[in-house]
Amino acid sequence: MIIGPKYKIARRLGAPIFEKTQTQKYALHLEKRGKKKGFSKPKSEFGIQMNEKQKARFTYGLSERQFSNYVKEAISKKGANASQSIFEFLETRVDNVVYRLGFSPTRLGSRQLVSHGHIAVNGRRVNTPSMRLKIGDKVEITGRSTTKPVFANLDEKIKNATTPSWIKFDSVKKVAEIQGKPTYVKSENMFDLNAVIEFYSR
Question: 3-class secondary structure for the chain?
Fold first, then answer.
């Protein structure tokens, strides 16, 4: 997925949605440009909703089609909280779980690890980044990939990652198990999924 210059997109959306924009270097970049708070021009309700949609989509590195399919599926689920469902769809993707474990410092890198067959789910090698995991699924690096250069200094990478409570991770064996469901909390994320739903419900 081609997304263009990340600094420019993050400034436009008013949020450090990419890993490279969550650094001191980016903060200094904003200071020099005098845009700590992003664009100051007032947005319409539609503009605000679109902005939230773009922040969520770019955070997970999804195409418009992929993201909209998740939203439509969540909205169509009767009796379910759509915002919670969308968040579950996004967070339980195997590439996102690999990112959460710290196997790669970026979601793009995690997606490549899965695509190249370096990750196994329940003992079987997988290569579909969008695969959704469920409670009880186990994720690990495939045996033949553990010595690959891409996993060099893995222990150090893992130290810098914060594993969410719904994932149980054995940092010694490098095996993770999904033991719950991610919970969407608006204040803990850079995007508002309720606004996203409103955008697609227009």
Answer: CCCCCHHHHHHHHCCCCCHHHCCHHHHHHHHHHCCCCCCCCCCCHHHHHHHHHHHHHHHHCCCHHHHHHHHHHHHHCCCCCHHHHHHHHHHCEHHHHHHHHCCCCCHHHHHHHHHCCCEEECCEEECCCCCECCCCCEEEECHHHCCCHHHCCHHHHHHCCCCCCCEEEECCCCEEEECCCCCCCHHHCCCCHHHHHHHHCC
User: For the segment 102-149, what is each residue's pLDDT rounded down to a tens digit?
Assistant: 999 999 999 999 999 999 999 999 999 999 999 999 999 999 999 999
Burial class (CB in 10 A: 0-12, 13-18, 19+), 31: exposed
Of the candidates 65, 53, 141, the residue with the CA atom closest to the CA atom of residue 97:
141
Q: How many CA atoms lie within 13 A of 90 on its CB side?
A: 26
Structure tokens at 147: 């010595």
Model confidence at 17: pLDDT above 80: no
Closest CA to 106 of 160, 63, 174: 160
Pairing of strands 119-121, 167-170: unpaired
Tell me phi and psi for residue 114, to 5 degrees. -70, -50
Q: What are phi and psi of 14, to 5 degrees?
A: 75, 25
- pTM comes to 0.85
Sequence letter at residue 101:
L
